[in-house]
Amino acid sequence: MASDKIAAQRATEQNKKLKQDLQGLEDDFVKMSKDKLELTEKIAAEKYLNRELTIKLAEVEEKAKEMQVKLKAKDDEMIRLQSSYREMEKQCELLINLSKSDSPTVLEAVDNSLAKEETVIEEEAEHLLHSNHKSLSEQIDDKNSLRLQKEEAMLKLQDRFLKIMGEVADLSDEKHRLEHIILQLQNETETICEYVALYQQQRSLLKRRDEERSAQLKVFQQECGKLQSELEELTGILARFADDKELSSYFLTESKRMDMERVMTLLSNLKNNSLIDPKKKNIDFKNFYPCNCCSGKLIEV
After folding, report:
1. Residue 65: CA count within 13 A, CB half-sphere
2. Ranges for the Golgin subfamily A conserved domain (predicted)?
3. Are 157 and 49 in contact (CB under 8 A)?
4. How far apart are CA 273 and CA 280, in angstroms?
């Protein structure tokens, strides 16, 4: 029974340890799930940032298209001014031809007017060219800057995405490993439960056999007590026979006297038997088994 208690205690301790290990694995699994959720949120944030950059790039491209339209309009204006300049040159030539027949004062006034108009046209053309060049240069610089920013952001996003995917792969491997360990612990727990059930079954069987043995011992003690009382009664009767004077002459013969002594000796031996007198200790109990299932020795499990 002591070995059964030790085995049950060890099985209980091992089961408790396995439950603690299982709880630790469940905590690690929950932590891993939280980490995976955080990584998923980071990926979503990066996707949102990439989408914002794409929208900004689209806006810049739209502005570039608008600038190209404006530049085309200014080019058209430049062409119109050049056409006007050519018209003015033609008018100048016409006026020069006409000046041959006009007075010098009129010719000088016309020359001054044409010179002023030519100067104004040249200034407007130069201003328009400078404005178009500056606008186009700024537009190209903005576009190049946004393109570089987008390329840099895409590279960073790609690096972070690859890093996150690597972490997700590592977490998946760790998850599979923990699931395998949990399965093994569950199998071991089931095995321990089977051992505990078997131990309880064996304990119940031993308890039932011990109860049967106790009942048999009780019956044996009752029979021994009954036999002892009958022997005491028989001893008293024989003592009365010995005190009887009529029977004394009967036992004077040698053979009858020896028979009487033999009867008294047998009665004395029966009274002194250890099965009747529990105080006797002259029996060797080294081969006595407490029950029919064990030898009485403790076995370490």
Report:
1. 6
2. 1-83, 118-245
3. yes
4. 8
pLDDT in tens, the chain (301 residues): 566 667 667 777 777 787 787 788 788 878 878 888 888 888 888 888 878 888 887 887 888 788 778 878 877 877 877 787 777 777 777 766 766 554 455 556 555 665 676 676 667 666 666 665 566 666 667 667 777 777 787 787 778 778 877 777 887 788 788 888 888 887 887 888 888 888 888 888 999 998 998 898 888 888 888 888 877 877 777 777 777 676 666 666 666 667 677 777 777 777 666 555 555 444 444 444 444 455 444 444 3
Q: How far, in whole angstroms, is CA 100 from its chain's centroid?
A: 106
What is the residue type of 235?
T
CATH for 40? 1.10.287.2610
Q: Which residue has the tokens 């005491």?
A: 232
Identify whether the C-beta of residue 254 lies closer than 8 Å to the C-beta of residue 272.
no
Nearest to 71 by CA among 140, 148, 155, 146: 140
SS3 289: coil
Distance between CA atoms of 228 and 222, rounded to whole angstroms? Answer: 10
What's the chain's Rg over C-alpha atoms?
Answer: 62
Residue 294: strand, helix, or coil: strand
In a domain, 111, yes or no: yes
Q: What tokens does 201 get?
A: 């079954």
Within a domain: 88? yes
* Strand ranges, E, within 19-162: none
Range of the domain at 120: 2-210
Nearest by Cα to 299 from 190, 214, 202 = 202
Whether residue 196 lies inside any domain: the answer is yes
The residue type found at 287 is N
Residue 277 corresponds to which amino acid?
D
3-class DSSP assignment, residue 218: helix
Domain count, the chain: 1
